[in-house]
What we know:
By secondary structure, the chain is an alpha/beta fold.
Amino acid sequence: MPRPVVAGIDGTRAGSAAADWAAREALRRELPLTLVHAWSWEPLDLPVTQDTEAQREAAGRLLHEAAGALRERHPRLELTAEQPPAPAVTALLARSEDAEMLVLGTRGHGRLMGFLLGSVGLQVLGRAASPVVMVRPAQDGSDRPAPPGRSEVVVGLENLTATGEPVLAFAFAHAAANGMRIHAVRAWALPTVFNYSPAAMELADEAGGIEAHEKQQLHTALRPWRERYPQVEVVEQVEIGAAAEVLLTASGRAGLVVVGRRRRPGRGHLGPVAHATLHHACCPVAVVSHD
């Protein structure tokens, strides 16, 4: 049974944009979409009567209307809607266990101020079992996703070993489904006295220098994915500099940026590259966990 694309909504424009992006991705990958609006009653410290049943009904209407709008916009979409009686983070993390990806909305103010990541998004990003895609709405006031740039998926590659393969798997699957090219980016820096290794430097010398060695490593890591997805054009970029800066510069023409996150049991943590990309990229960002 195919795993669904799961979109979390909360009644905001950002949530609607995320749902629409998720619907389009589900159709292109021929996957079902599950729309989730978690709701649990929590008492508020307000001097007013709190009608929990009315709140529950309002949450149900929100979910029903969002699902109806998606079905009208995408009539071929296989869609189910869920309203789990749990806090949003708990519900979304549980749903990520059997999801192809989890799609959430985020507010943003443009390239200088970046995204506004709420507490729910940050907690889910750091702990979700599936890849998480953060989407923000267009700046024209609509609830559609912000329009992508040129048709390429920019993927930042810090880990070129087998443990980093989930990042490439997600990036190539998205590129193939959407007719986009892969722009693989790897940043490098001169070794410091603390991580200098004679063996590593010997390998770099044999390859013609550190940069040539990095290019060779990237090309080797991408070879099996080129063979698996021969229809996907691949562009390689190896550049000296800070990883976040190099990746963000490359992302100016991207429709999606894909970054990795190390999986640490019991800890929800985003590295500095993922954090910077989430706040400043001008397109949707996918965070993929790996060992």
